[in-house]
Specification:
The protein contains 7 helices and 14 strands. The protein is α+β, with helices and mostly antiparallel strands. Strands 1, 2, 3, 4 and 5 form a 5-stranded antiparallel beta sheet that branches. The chain has a 5-stranded mixed beta sheet with strand order 10-12-13-14-11. Strands 6-7-8-9 form a 4-stranded antiparallel beta sheet, with helices on one face. The protein is globular.
């Protein structure tokens, strides 16, 4: 294809090899003994695959190459890596060929750290001009964490959702984030750009009187188990309501008459046991909070969900 030839001429493999090496080195510094580092590419190129792995092992003698194949069931269609430069050790890598299993050609290697020789020791900055992630707000700066958690708990109570207790939270500007590890306890990661560590729950908005209101993130519906939401509707396969939701359209009580019985503003729409979207009832209208970047991929999502149960897609391909 002309586009493929153009991309290859503008971005030849030799441009990626040094960058990949820097990424691997930066990741290696963050691992504790026993930690696992997985390196994966979507190319057949030996320079970016087996040769890159071999060079990494030479730079980092405290790492060993794990055999990746036993981590997958027999008959998965995965192939072993090539013994580049006669190194039989590289057969522990994995290759995915499109004529053996689904995929467009991929490679993966699994490293395990044996010692702490270079762990967290003065990591080298890959790009000093790289955009830095936003700092998490501390209590007392703008929206404080206590006020944000009160707003979040009120939202959960009013909409019959689960409890907020037992988790760790912090603020990233006006966004409430749930995290297993507070940001101040994370290892230093100079050279690795991280948006934030944790799950974005939603925004906390403050009115002129200083009252906080929690607005949920659309991804909340996709990240929490459906049992977390006390009021929810299971959408029927091939229904108009399912089509409208996945296409980002506004719904109404005519589409979801069962929602008339709900006493909460927000409720969950699910499909085959998977949370799809939060919906907000505003009179007879139902606001659709399905993430905008999933619009246009509705058919793919339905097919993936359906394949997990019956293997039969619920919406015809030519209906999108």
């Amino acid at each position: 294809k002309p586009a493929s030839r153009l991309a290859r001429s503008e971005y030849p493999p030799e441009n990626f090899v040094p960058l990949q090496a820097e990424i691997l080195d930066a990741g290696a510094r963050l691992l504790k003994p026993g930690g696992v580092l997985v390196y994966s590419t979507c190319t057949f190129n030996l320079a970016e695959n087996e040769a890159q792995v071999l060079a990494f092992l030479e730079r980092h003698p405290d790492f060993e190459l794990d055999d990746g194949l036993p981590h997958f069931p027999a008959g998965s269609g995965l192939d072993r890596g090539f013994p580049y430069e006669g190194q039989e050790l590289l057969k522990r890598c994995l290759r995915i060929f499109p004529h053996h299993c689904e995929g467009e050609g991929h490679f993966a290697a699994r490293f395990i750290r044996r010692s702490a020789e270079t762990c967290l020791s003065s990591p080298r900055v890959l790009n000093s001009k790289a955009k830095r992630p936003k700092k998490a707000r501390k209590s007392g700066q703008g929206t404080n964490l206590k006020l944000a958690l009160e707003a979040y708990q009120n939202f959960l109570s009013q909409n019959h959702c689960g409890d907020a207790e037992g988790e760790s939270y912090f603020l990233l500007d006006d966004t409430l984030v749930e995290a297993q590890i507070p940001p101040e306890e994370l290892p230093k990661s100079a050279g690795i750009h991280c948006l934030h560590s944790g799950l974005s729950l939603g925004q906390v908005k403050i009115d002129r009187r200083g009252r906080a209101r929690f607005v949920p993130d659309p991804l909340l519906a996709l990240s929490k188990p459906i049992e977390f939401f006390g009021q929810r509707l299971e959408l029927k396969p091939a229904s108009d309501a399912l089509r409208k939701l996945l296409q980002g359209q506004t719904l109404s009580l005519e589409d979801l008459p069962e929602a008339a019985a709900f006493d909460a503003s927000y409720f969950l729409a699910s499909y085959r046991g998977f949370g799809l979207s939060l919906l907000k009832r505003e009179g007879s209208q139902i606001k659709n909070l399905f993430p905008a970047y999933f619009h246009g991929r509705a058919l793919d999502l339905v097919q993936i969900l359906a394949a997990g149960t019956s293997g039969e897609p619920s919406i015809e391909e030519d209906d999108e």
